[in-house]
Amino acid sequence: MVRLRMPSAAALVVAVLLGMGACTEPTPEPVHLDIATGSRTGVYYVFGEAYRTIINRELPHVRANVLVTTASAENVRLVGSGQVQLGFTQADILPTTGNQVRAVARVYDDLLHLVVRADGPVRRLADLRGRTVSVGAPGSGTAITANRLLDVAELSGDQVKVSQLGLDASAQALADGEIDAFFFSGGPPVKAVEQLVDAMPIRLVELGEWTEPLRVRYSEVYVSRDIPSSVYGLDPISTVADPNYLVVGADMPDDLVYELTRLLMQYRDELGVAHPAAGRLNPQSAIATAPLPLHPGAARYYQSIKP
């Protein structure tokens, strides 16, 4: 069961800012922070684990924990309801989430992967017609982006046979011949895709031509990005990209969010060792979190380092 153990704002300030270690008062209860991520072989989880390590090392009275989830949509629901304190999410789901979450930072861009067997018949998006494709687990950002893409390509409804599998199950189903393709939205390199490259011949399908139709019908957050051959050793492609954010509850104390933002920025080189996508963090792009406003604590941090 997810913990709901957020002390008062005053207690959080004491826990985070410390500076009072020599006092004789009883040690305060640790501040527990749950970080909602995604699949264990996805980027959110790797990023979250590295961030958790930094938080627990640098903030002695904070205890962070990483949760495996179905990713973006579930993460926003959990953070917005107060069941967890931090989470990662794609930008394209945010207009429907209300005002219970705030942004800490734009962390990197998720790139939509459409993965198929190299010896299979699917070479372009239209080739999915009549075939079985996994669009991602219910509650994931992948599912939202993939279903929108199928919609603008006129492949929704009964045009394809949709399976709703998470990343690991999708990769296994493709290897077993149970599906013809799967979508996953993540910052490359995605570990599960790397593992599949080592196990069997696969390719990525070009999707860049669909960025503008997605922008027109759904959201201007979508942009085109390249996956070069250096990432997976496959033919390079252009695809649809979607910014993703680290978010917190709107009522989280400002001083705690300030400290969490500081750690995110000051230790981005360490985060980049855990995963290259995390290493792309920088203060200039981090503040670009539309349509979600920055949490006041995060905004105060960015203002403090402004030249």
From TrEMBL:
Range of residues in the leader sequence: 1-24
SUPFAM superfamilies: Periplasmic binding protein-like II
Keyword Signal among record annotations: yes
InterPro entries per UniProt: TRAP_TAXI
The entry's keywords: Signal
Protein name (database record): C4-dicarboxylate ABC transporter substrate-binding protein
Species whose genome carries this gene: Catellatospora coxensis
Higher taxonomy: Bacteria, Bacillati, Actinomycetota, Actinomycetes, Micromonosporales
